[in-house]
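Why should sequence recovery work at all? Because a backbone constrains its sequence more than one might expect. Tight turns favour small or flexible residues, buried strands favour hydrophobic ones, and helices have their own preferences. The token representation captures these environments compactly. In the example below, the structure is given first.
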């Protein structure tokens, strides 16, 4: 067996006489996935080696050799010449093996007082920390796009729905800001997750800690963690940080999906509230008139993929006895995939919202249909005639029925027709029956009035910068 045949030289191969089968190698190797953590792996090794030298566990010369070798590894990664080898299973053994080729024996001392179990999860936490920052940035960009739409359309009246039935007039600005609020909570969930995950597992070693006099505070600090994790079994076993990130993204993707669904509805010929720009529409190969909202539809579908990734990881973790088990290797493909998908979805949604245009006339006309100001009429009866709301609701119901019979909207009934149901009604009632008056009147805190919306837009602009 040639000494440079890595397959015959598994790092853990001391006690093995035979090589793994090819299929064993295929199921076991994770390098195609975990190579994305190469930078984090090198950072972890640098911090570990510095600490080992500081503590006198390895010599200063060995540390220098290790650091210089890792410099070369970084350069190879940067200029795409680093040899990722599937026989070496994962990124940790790939980096270490390459280091050995570069610096020789000193490389063999790097793994003192460390195991791949604490190494992998250190890398993974570092990676997730960066990915959470990116995910949050994507949401912020989207929020900015939505606030801009809200600012331009603070006073654009559209139908507000419950049960997808016309309910009351609302403003488009108000509708957009509802999503801004949701995405803000999503950001805060990602922040929480980033804060909680920022503890260092490094030094937990395989599961029980180590007999070497390591300094876990030092490596934690070097890697930007707040502190070392307090329990070595927990450190190598815990994946709740990844679950939490996936759960937070799954919730956020659910919000993205609801907005996507509204885009699909609003851009249909039946609604005709909005039009996506050419850059965010696709055509049909057979129907020349089509402008399809494919990106919105895909966001709707991809939200489920992210939820699926969350559920898959939860399934992988939920029955694992402490501490490490290889099941945990598949945490990364799920997590990386979810972050990739989430980033794509927020970027696509921001792109659509930056260039979407709204048809204010159509929205206004739709808002006036379906007796959307019936509540305003009932409120008038309560305010002007001191009628109990329940009675006012009943009278308004009769007026709606009358309009329905006549095939017209509420404001098109004559005063006489109205008075045949409630004689005390006066011409003044017509002033509350327009959709503008209705929206304008809803000035309660958090309400849809253009006044309130403009205030909120201003606050969001300041907050989002
Ligand atoms: N590639 C492995 C993973 O991602 C590294 C940890 C391996 N540890 C072990 N005891 N086999 O989980």
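From this structural description, the recovered sequence reads:
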């Amino acid at each position: 067996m040639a000494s440079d045949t890595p397959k015959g030289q598994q790092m853990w191969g001391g006690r093995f006489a035979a090589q793994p089968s090819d299929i064993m190698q295929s199921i076991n190797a994770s390098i195609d996935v975990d190579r994305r953590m190469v930078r984090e792996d090198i950072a972890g090794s640098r911090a570990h080696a510095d600490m080992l030298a500081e503590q006198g566990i390895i010599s200063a010369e060995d540390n220098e050799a290790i650091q210089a070798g890792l410099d070369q590894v970084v350069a190879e990664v940067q200029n795409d010449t680093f040899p990722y080898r599937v026989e070496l299973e994962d990124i940790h053994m790939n980096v270490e093996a390459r280091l050995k080729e570069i610096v020789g024996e000193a490389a063999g001392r790097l793994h003192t007082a460390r195991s791949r179990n604490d190494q992998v999860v250190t890398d993974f936490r570092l990676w997730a920390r960066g990915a959470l920052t990116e995910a949050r940035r994507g949401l912020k960009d989207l929020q900015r796009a939505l606030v801009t739409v809200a600012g331009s359309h603070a006073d654009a009246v559209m139908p507000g729905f419950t049960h997808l039935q016309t309910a009351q007039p609302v403003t488009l600005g108000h509708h957009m800001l509802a999503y801004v609020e949701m995405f803000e909570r999503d950001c805060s969930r990602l922040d929480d997750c980033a804060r909680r995950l920022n503890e260092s597992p490094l030094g937990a070693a395989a599961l029980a800690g180590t007999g070497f006099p390591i300094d876990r505070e030092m490596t934690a600090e070097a890697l930007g963690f707040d502190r070392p994790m307090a329990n070595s079994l927990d450190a190598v076993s815990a994946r709740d940080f990844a679950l939490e990130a996936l759960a937070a993204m799954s919730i956020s993707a659910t919000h993205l999906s609801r907005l996507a669904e509204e885009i699909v509805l609003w851009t249909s010929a039946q609604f005709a509230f909005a039009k996506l720009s050419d850059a965010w529409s696709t055509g049909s190969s057979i129907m020349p008139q089509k402008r399809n909202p494919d990106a919105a539809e895909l966001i709707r579908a991809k939200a489920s993929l992210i939820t699926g990734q969350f559920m898959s990881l939860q399934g992988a973790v939920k029955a694992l006895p402490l501490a490490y088990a290889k099941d945990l290797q598949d945490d990364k493909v799920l997590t990386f995939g979810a972050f990739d998908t989430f980033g794509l979805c927020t970027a696509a949604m921001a792109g659509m919202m930056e260039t979407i245009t709204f048809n204010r006339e159509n929205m206004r006309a739709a808002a006036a249909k379906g007796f959307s100001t019936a509540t305003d009429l009932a409120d008038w009866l309560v305010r002007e005639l001191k009628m109990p709301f329940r009675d006012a609701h009943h009278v308004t119901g009769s007026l709606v029925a009358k309009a329905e019979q006549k095939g017209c909207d509420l404001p098109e009934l004559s005063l006489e027709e109205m008075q045949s149901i409630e004689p005390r009604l006066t011409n003044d009632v017509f002033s509350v029956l327009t959709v503008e008056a209705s929206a304008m009147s809803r000035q309660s805190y958090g309400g849809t009035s253009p006044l309130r919306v403009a205030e909120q837009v201003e606050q969001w602009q300041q907050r989002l910068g």
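A few observations help interpret the result. The two ends are 63 Å apart (CA to CA).
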